[in-house]
């Protein structure tokens, strides 16, 4: 017995191939997009935070006469809050912090009694932060 098979026509043979190519393209695009997202995610998270570059007085400095503290960040900050606190929790800042580009300047309420002070900074009401700056007033 002879079996006669009919060859598929050209239009029918290319449709599945076209769909396979489209699927492969979409799958590869999705994989590349996911890879780029995973690779770039840490950079966007790191760039989202302002980093303190320097402070005046510097960390662990001993000062005798001081009327203001200055914090310099890696980029411009908005709505900064700065508190200068002694070991007993008393605040010594005066008024709002002055924003000058990447620098934040906080005036003090007057001469500081002898002791250890901490500069606490943030962008909400001043509370404890992971990296306060401490200085001593003899």
From TrEMBL:
Residues 1-48 form the signal peptide. Residues 49-121 form the CopC domain. Pfam families: CopC. SUPFAM superfamilies: E set domains. Keywords: Copper, Signal. This is Methionine-rich copper-binding protein CopC.
């Amino acid at each position: 017995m002879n079996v006669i098979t009919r060859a598929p026509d050209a239009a029918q043979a290319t449709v599945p191939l076209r769909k396979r190519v489209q699927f492969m393209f979409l799958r590869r695009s999705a994989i590349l997009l996911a890879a780029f997202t995973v690779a770039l995610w840490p950079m966007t998270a790191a760039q989202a935070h302002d980093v303190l570059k320097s402070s005046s007085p510097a960390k662990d400095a001993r000062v005798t006469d001081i009327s203001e503290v200055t914090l310099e960040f890696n980029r411009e900050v908005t709505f900064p809050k700065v508190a200068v606190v002694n070991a007993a929790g008393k605040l010594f800042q005066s008024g709002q912090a002055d924003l000058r580009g990447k620098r934040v300047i906080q005036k003090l309420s007057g001469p500081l009694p002898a002791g250890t002070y901490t500069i606490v900074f943030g962008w909400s009401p001043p509370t404890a932060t992971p990296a306060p700056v401490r200085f001593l007033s003899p």
